[in-house]
Q: What sequence folds into this?
């Protein structure tokens, strides 16, 4: 395997250096390197590299070890604030974290009030959800820049649960058919807090068992399609506040479609004052956003457009009397102060378990994806398992204090980063500002119109609704990802958020299985003057090595595609292997029956001679003399049988491995135009029992048609699995497994074979 002057040995006369520029060619000549090594099969490679199996240490032994250092490491792992807070550079970072925390709190206030409406709860519970979970994350979180708290997608998922399990129809008063809002809100708060506790338990449990990788099953197209569909649901759910309509509570599949149809049906009943309020608030928010974008270079902090809009709308509502004069629905009573902790109703857990798991996974997926983006941008590491624990504790503690499930907000996280936030201190500062508002200032927003909150929610949906542009980009980049995006979007719209997520994940996983079931199979040829092998259908200069077929699959071989792998291999080789084996067996069986018939006739003649008083041995000699002299008909048959046996013996002398004359040539069957088959197994990442059986069958079938089989480029873990599955035996050894395809091809050329392979190993 010598490769002088940067070239590797191989067949073909085409010079690859003709494609190189003069500078590159001179550089290659200057290097003047040479690579030489012997052919290496797996056994020789293991001996040369002194391979030994890695003895895996039992992880549970490490877990059970107890020492001062391990206790300290566990404490710092599960309570990260103790690791980074003592080293906090106060002079450099404190001012930025204070300004960032104030900016986030200014956004947190209106978003907390608005997203509580999405969850079907009184607005004050949005403020609670903006305080308790944020402070808990400050203690346990590892991301420095994400802003934990209320989020539109999480809120609408909670709202679908509360409205389905506590619909308005269950709280109608008998006298005037109006809804008892106090009882309804109390029931929904109980549901939301129990849901938050259950979500927290799921997240903490998954984090403690290091199950953070579960989020990897939510691909980016799936998450973006899901959040886009959720934003559409959020938009439709806010239309009742924009138009001032009273709608029926719906849940389950097609509920969002029925809600949209009901909105269209009841449009003539819209409250004009509510529509005007929402329209004016929306225009003000959009104008201030444009102003922010234009003046962001000149402003130390962005204009708090949502807070200013809420303050202005509250003042106008109180001064003009929007509720009494124009029928505009307002937020209502916002109690001052904190509420005591309440144990969740465990009897509700059975009803909430499915939704809780979906919310836990979605919330973590959103948080960890944003956290990793900021960590990569600022050069630090986010621990996915600890993030799962931190979010879980935030939701668990928050549920005890009557909060609903939270995650992180992209808009607030971007503001926290852009305004100078450096650590989780910014989140702690924002939670303290929210605490002040809850204790002292919350009651000032009692006259805030709900239409203004709805307008703020809809304007904030712009970023997620812009994800519709993914359709064009994915159409150009990857249409399989586009299919996942579309199926996720449609399933979430039609089946609601919980069933839609389950259907999207199931479809995504099935698509992965389907793509591995139909991989790209190819016959490889050697690129001239190299030891590189590529698909002959794609590379016009790649040439098949005479007498050797090299076959490659682009995916691993396992139970779902093992049969297709074998069938495609036989098809690509250009030989009907199964038919050839069948014909060979039929001819061998026919030959065997003929020999048995001849031997039976001879036995009968010997018995007839013995009955006349002549010994078998004399009769046999006599029969031979009769054949030679008298040319009798029965003797002719025996001579024919003897000649066939002699021919078989002669054939056995020509091919010692076929003493019975069972070669394709002796049987008059067509022979394959190649003597060796090389399986490129570089794509194998694991093997199962079906794969082992398929590979053994390939060895058996191709040896039946006098083709030797070799394997190449197996990774060490795969070789270990082959050994564990007892794949290697007397007929298939590690000498059939080579370090590279080129090694296997060169060995096959040096050791061409003909005739069937015996059941013993071939070295």
A:
């Amino acid at each position: 395997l010598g490769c002088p002057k940067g070239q590797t040995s191989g067949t073909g006369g085409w010079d690859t250096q003709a494609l190189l520029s003069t500078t590159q060619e001179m550089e290659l000549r200057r290097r003047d390197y040479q690579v030489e090594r012997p052919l290496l099969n797996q056994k020789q490679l293991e001996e040369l590299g002194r391979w030994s199996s890695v003895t895996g240490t039992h992880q549970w032994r490490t877990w059970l070890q107890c020492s001062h250092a391990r206790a300290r490491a566990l404490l710092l792992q599960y309570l990260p604030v103790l690791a980074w807070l003592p080293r906090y550079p106060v002079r450099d970072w404190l001012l930025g974290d204070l300004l960032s925390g104030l900016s986030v709190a200014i956004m947190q206030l209106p978003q907390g009030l608005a997203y509580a409406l999405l969850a079907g709860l009184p607005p004050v519970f949005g403020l609670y959800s903006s305080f308790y979970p944020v402070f808990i994350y400050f203690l346990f979180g590892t991301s420095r820049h994400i802003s934990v708290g209320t989020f539109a997608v999480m809120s609408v998922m909670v709202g679908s649960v509360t409205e389905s399990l506590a619909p308005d129809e269950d709280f109608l008063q008998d006298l005037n058919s109006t809804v008892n809002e106090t009882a309804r809100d109390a029931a929904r708060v109980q549901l939301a807090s129990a849901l938050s506790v259950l979500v927290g338990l799921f997240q903490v449990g998954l984090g403690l068992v290091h199950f953070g990788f579960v989020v990897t099953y939510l691909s980016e197209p799936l998450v973006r399609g899901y959040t886009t569909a959720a934003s559409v649901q959020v938009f439709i759910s806010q239309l009742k506040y924009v138009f001032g309509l009273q709608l029926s509570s719906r849940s389950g599949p097609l509920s969002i479609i029925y809600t949209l149809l009901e909105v269209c049906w009841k449009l003539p009943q819209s409250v004009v004052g509510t529509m005007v309020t929402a329209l004016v608030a929306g225009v003000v928010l959009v104008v201030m956003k444009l102003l922010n974008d234009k003046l962001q270079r000149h402003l130390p902090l962005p204009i708090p457009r949502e807070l200013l809009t809420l303050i202005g709308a509250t003042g106008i509502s109180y001064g003009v009397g929007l509720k009494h004069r124009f029928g505009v629905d307002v937020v209502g009573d916002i109690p001052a102060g904190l509420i005591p902790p309440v144990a969740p109703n465990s009897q509700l857990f059975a009803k909430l378990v499915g939704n809780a798991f979906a919310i836990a996974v979605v919330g973590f997926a959103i948080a960890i994806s944003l956290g990793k983006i900021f960590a990569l941008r600022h050069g630090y590491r986010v621990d996915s398992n600890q993030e799962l624990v931190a979010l879980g504790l935030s939701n668990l503690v928050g549920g005890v204090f009557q909060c609903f499930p939270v995650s992180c907000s992209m808009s607030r996280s971007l503001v926290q980063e852009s305004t100078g936030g450096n650590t989780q201190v910014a989140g702690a500062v924002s939670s303290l500002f929210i605490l002040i508002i809850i204790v002292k200032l919350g009651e000032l927003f009692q006259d805030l119109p709900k239409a203004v909150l709805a307008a703020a929610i809809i304007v904030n949906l712009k970023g997620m609704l812009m994800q519709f542009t993914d359709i064009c980009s994915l159409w150009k980049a990857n249409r399989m990802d586009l299919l996942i995006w579309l199926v996720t979007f449609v399933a979430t719209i039609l089946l609601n958020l919980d069933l839609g997520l389950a259907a999207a994940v199931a479809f995504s996983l099935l698509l992965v299985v389907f793509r591995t079931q139909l991989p790209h199979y190819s016959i490889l040829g050697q690129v001239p003057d190299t030891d590189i092998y590529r698909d002959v259908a794609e590379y016009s200069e790649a040439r098949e090595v005479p007498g050797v077929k090299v076959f490659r699959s682009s995916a691993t071989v396992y139970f779902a595609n093992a049969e297709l792998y074998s069938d495609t291999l036989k098809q690509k080789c250009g030989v009907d292997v199964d038919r050839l084996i069948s014909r060979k067996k039929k001819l061998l069986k026919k030959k065997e029956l003929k020999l048995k018939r001849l031997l039976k006739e001879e036995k009968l003649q010997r018995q007839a001679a013995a009955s006349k008083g002549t010994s078998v041995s004399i009769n046999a000699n006599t029969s031979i003399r009769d054949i030679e002299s008298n040319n009798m008909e029965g003797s002719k048959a025996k001579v024919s049988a003897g000649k066939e046996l002699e021919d078989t013996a002669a054939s056995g002398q020509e091919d010692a491995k076929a003493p019975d004359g069972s070669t394709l040539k002796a049987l008059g069957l067509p022979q394959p135009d190649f003597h060796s088959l090389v399986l490129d197994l570089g794509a194998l990442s694991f093997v199962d029992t079906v794969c082992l059986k398929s590979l053994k069958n390939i060895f058996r079938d191709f040896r039946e048609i006098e083709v030797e089989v070799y394997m190449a480029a197996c990774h060490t873990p795969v070789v270990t699995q082959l050994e564990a599955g007892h794949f290697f035996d007397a007929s298939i050894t590690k000498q059939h497994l080579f370090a590279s395809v080129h090694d296997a091809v060169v060995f096959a050329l040096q050791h061409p074979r003909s005739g069937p392979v015996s059941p013993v190993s071939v070295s």
